[in-house]
Amino acid sequence: MHRRARSDLTGKYLAAPPHAVSKPSVVVAGKVGTAVHNRVVNATAAVSVIAAAVAGCSSESHAGVDARTIKVLINGSDTGHHLVDCTQVRWLWTLKTLTDDPGVTVQLQTGGDVVAKLVQINNLGGFTGTFGQDITGAAHASFRNGTFKVVGTAAGWYHDKPGERSSARFEIITAC
After folding, report:
1. pLDDT at 43 (0 to 100)
2. Tens digits of per-residue pLDDT, 114-136?
3. Could you give the number of structural domains in the chain?
4. Phi, psi for 44 (deg, rounded to 5)
5. In a domain, 64, yes or no
6. Are 131 and 161 in a shared domain?
7. Judgement on whether residues 169 and 91 belong to the same structural domain of the protein
8. What's in the GO CC field (predicted)?
9. Is residue 133 part of a domain?
10. Above 70 in pLDDT, residue 112?
11. One domain, residues 95 and 22
C-alpha cells in the first residue's frame, strides 16, 4: 500500500512509497514518539500556556503580597499609594500606575547617574501635567536602597481651572 503525499506546488496528492513519506516525530527524554505523542505534548503545552496567561491576567495578581505601589505627592499633599507596574528595557525604567486616570507615568534612565526623562501626571491631587527633560519643568531623580525618588515641577493645569496654565511640585517614591 502506498501513502499519499501532497505536492507543495500543485496542492494535488501524489502517490509515494511508504519509505518516502516520513512520520512526524519528536525526541522526548531520548525516546522517539509518533504524531499522537506530539499532539499530547502540544496539547499539554497549550494548556500550560493558557493557565499561565489566565493566572497572569487575574485581578488578584496585583493585590497580593508582592504588589508594588508608588507614592505621589502634589504640592506636598499625599495622593495616596497607587499600584504600579515597573518595567526595564536596558537602562530605561518605566514606572506606570495600573490606572491611567488618576495615574502617573515616569521614565528614568539608569546606568550612571539616575536621570528623570519624563513624568506624566493625570488627575492626581486635582492636577494634570508633564515634566519632560529639556522640554518642560525640572526634576531630579535618585535611587537609594532599592527605592526610586523623583522630585520636580510639572507644567499643566488644575481641574478647578482647566483653562489656566499652571505648575505643580511633585514627589514620587517607589521601590521597583
Report:
1. 44
2. 999 999 999 999 999 999 999 99
3. 2
4. -65, -45
5. no
6. yes
7. yes
8. membrane
9. yes
10. yes
11. no
Burial readout 21-40 (b: 16 or more C-beta within 10 A, e: otherwise): eeeeeeeeeeeebeeeeeee
Q: Residue 157: pLDDT band by 50, 70, 90 thresholds?
A: very high
**Could you identify the residue written with the cell 501635567?**
129
What whole-number distance in Å separates Cα of residue 70 and Cα of residue 81?
A: 5
Q: Are residue 46 and residue 93 in the same domain, yes or no?
A: no
- The DSSP secondary structure of the chain, one letter per residue, reads --EEEE-TTT--EEEE-GGGSPPP--EETTEE--HHHHHHHHHHHHHHHHHHHHHHHSGGGGSSTT--EEEEEETTEEEEEEEEEEEEETTEEEEEES-SSSEEEEEEE-SSS-EEEEEEEEEETTEEEEEETTTBSEEEEEEETTEEEEEEEEEEEETTEEEEEEEEEEEEEE--
Q: Are 71 and 106 in contact (CB under 8 A)?
A: no
Q: Which of 22-26, 106-110, 143-147 has the lowest mean pLDDT?
A: 22-26
Same domain for 132 and 84, yes or no, is: yes
State which residues form the domain around 149: 69-174
User: Which residue has cell 522517539?
Assistant: 32
Looking at residue 15, its amino acid is: A
Q: Let me know whether 91 and 21 are in one domain.
A: no
CA 94 to chain centre: 9
